[in-house]
Amino acid sequence: MASSFFSDFGLMWYLEELNKKEFKKFKERFKQETLKLGLKQISWTEVKKSSRQELANLLIQHYEAQQAWGLTLRIFHSMARQDLCDKVQRERAEHKKIYRAYVKNKFSSLCTSKFITDFFECFGEKVRPEELEYLHLLFAAKENGQPSHTTVLQGAEGIGKTTLLMKLLLGWAEGSLYEDRFLYAFYFCCRELRQLKETSLADLMSGNWPYPSPAPIAEIVSHPEKLLFIIDSFEQLKCDLSEPESDLCSDWMKQQPVRVLLSGLLRKKMLPEASLLIAVTPMCPAELQARLVCPELITLSGFSEEEIEFYFRRLFPSRSRAAEAFRFLRENAQVYSLCHTPRVCWVIGTCMKQVMEKGRSLAPICRRLTSLYASFILNLFTGEDASCPSPESQVQLRGLCSLAVEGMWTDEFEFNDEALRRNGIADSDVPALLDTNIFLKCTESSYTFAHTSIQEFCAAMFYLLRRDHPNPAVRCRETLLATHLKKVKKAHWTYWVRFLFGFLKEKEQEEVDTFFGFQPSQEIRQEFHQILKNLGEHEGLPGQTDFLALFYCLFELEDTTFVREAVNFLQEINFSINNDLDLVVCAYCLEYCSGLRRLSFSVPKVIEEDGQGCASGPSVTHWHHIFSVFTTNEHLKELEITDTDFCQSVLVILCNQLRHPTCHLEKLQLNRVSLSGGSSVFFEALSQSPDLRYLNLHNVNLSRDDMEKFCKVLSLSMCNIEELTLSGCFLRNPCWDLLHEALLTKKSLCSLDLSASNLHDKGLNVLSVALRHPDCCLRSLGLANCSFTAVGCGDLATVLTSNRKLTSLQIGLNKVGDMGAKVLCEALARPSCHLEILGFKDCGLTSACCRDLYSALTHSRTLRVLDLTLNTLDYSGVAVLCEALKYPECPLWVLGLPKTRFDEKTEMLLMAVEESNPHLTIIGFW
């Protein structure tokens, strides 16, 4: 590996500078220093008789470059040949100076090229102070005080990752950023790397060195802790770093497949001390982070509101026009949200400028995304002074649409010359397409759309042009819509089908008609209508459907009649609201729903508040529309809300709808939901919901005060809850006495789940008093993972023998052990115990308890289901159980015991018992 070091950096030249006496002295010091440093020893006989060239070769063969050069400098210094040491430093400084100048020139040119469009001229090619501050964070010290060595920069396509990386390199080259930390910084674009079959890290670095001087590779890697490698567009390689460790190589000179090479570099097999900056899109494999060494994840969010407004002020020569355009933009949540992506901001801003310069109103253009893109792109191909497009422009746009749709179906976003010609784009068309700035040159032999949203728009327009495609991978409209509405779909399918729905509007069809000279097919509308009808009629489809994607499509269409007909087919809907725009879109569609039977949604941390626990004005309106489904859907029976932190004002809206006379909700599930101090209004609503039968408050944090209010509600005659789940609600001992009265007075309550509560033996003792009372009507009790032991099983045993109504008990994940099982089995064997289902999952049972289980199984006349999964039983214990299962009077129907986890002898025993008893099923999971 050291050969490049000695040839490039000229060790031979330095050894030639020593006279005969000095060279002999060098050899003697060489022996001393290698011993002192603990380096691998070279035969002294070989060293003593070697010439200058032979000694250089010995160093090449035995040491790493960094070791060899460090050793040589130490010897020069000890020999008082500081002149040679100084020359090394001067040459190193000169190399660094040459490379910095090269980087500055190269990336300054890139920043001002058409590759990034004229849009970025507004922000200059210099690193601005706010950008400098952000860039410093990329390798800031962690909590332990140690600097980060691997940073993952994540951001959506077109959000500005490449521009930021280029500015980092410019800042480093100019000396304003990381000057002391990095001697060299290398930029590798995976878009270019994927064109290579094999290469070495040395070759990649040499390819980034100013020609014609050779790159001093070994000098560069001699200080790996001073190196920064920037890997841009990592997702382009479609690589998840999954290569086996044995395939990775530390040799930076070795020729390797690009994927293997990068895996070795990113997984710290090669130059582990070097720093890494990896830019990826969110669609990059999740495994990437897991396989990196202590990565720091930083998300790039794009333009701030101030930057968007700044761009609009620069774009419009008139201050009043700039203000008007920005006002229209802010009033449209969907369009404004996209302006955080710089290239989309350029599209939208340029379109609005075109419209205003023609004296047209912004209102109809800015309402939806399709209108903006149609106006922008069709104008580009019409020309400023022309009243209609030329035949050449029509052909070019058709070709672009054909290319776009092929790329969408084949996951290609870069296209070579052959792909262009296959889709009807001639070589002579390319300059005109590049002039539009929506089609860009990536490399010398490849092209791409300026942003994937532009490619998606052109792909949607393809389906209006009534043209077959030469690539069989391109599917029909029906397949496109069905695929888009699936929960598992291509990650980059964001706007494509939305644009297609947007084209169903009469105005957009007129725009296409004006450009191409024909009216798009009306069949699309009927086709989509039928697909959505089928979605509502098939029971299995709702669970596989991405309803948020559907809502965005309907929102883009903005046709009340079509939307109402589409959503009226739906009986079950589930979605997640992840931002304010999702809230707007869901509210718009749910307002027209009238046939719902089940609704499920989550809203993680997006509810805006005014500082006093109240949602903002527009947000309140949208929440009214969402919760109005309770009063407009007479058959809506189930509501599930997960991962939501309600502010008080939104919770009030929900509760007002729950207590409305026309709300007939029967099943309400809140999973990881925060009531944010609004528990009183929530429990009050429950008291006025006589149809509610099932209530699940899983992982809803309830205080003693909350439990006191809730138990009072449970005791009211208007409350008819039959099944109650309070699992994971952080209930503690002071709460158990509050349930006492509710368990005795609430005759309707037949099922109670307190799993994952801090019950302990003491709490179980308190609870058992109520459970033993004759007035307790519980038939099912869940106490899994409640931290009680064999001591608490004594109280449970008294419950089993005194409460004839209790038929189901789940106590898995408690440390009851064999002693606790013995106490419960004694209770099971008594005639007064009517238990039918018992869960002992992961209770620390061993074969020692199987005799007690035998007694329970041969004496009980009611036990139908017994779960023993995740307990450590062996053959002897299983044999005892099997004897019980053979007993003619054994009532068991289902036994939870994984046959395949036992040895072959035990597995065969269980299989034989199962075959001999037609009523028995042994299952391996629960």
From TrEMBL:
Any one Gene Ontology molecular-function term assigned to this protein's record: ATP binding
CDD domains with a match to the protein in the record: Pyrin_NALPs (cd08320)
One of the GO biological process terms: regulation of inflammatory response
Keyword Transferase listed: no
Stored PANTHER family: NACHT, LRR AND PYD DOMAINS-CONTAINING PROTEIN 12, NACHT, LRR AND PYD DOMAINS-CONTAINING PROTEIN 4
Family stated for the protein in its record: Belongs to the NLRP family.
Name of the protein in question: NLR family pyrin domain containing 4
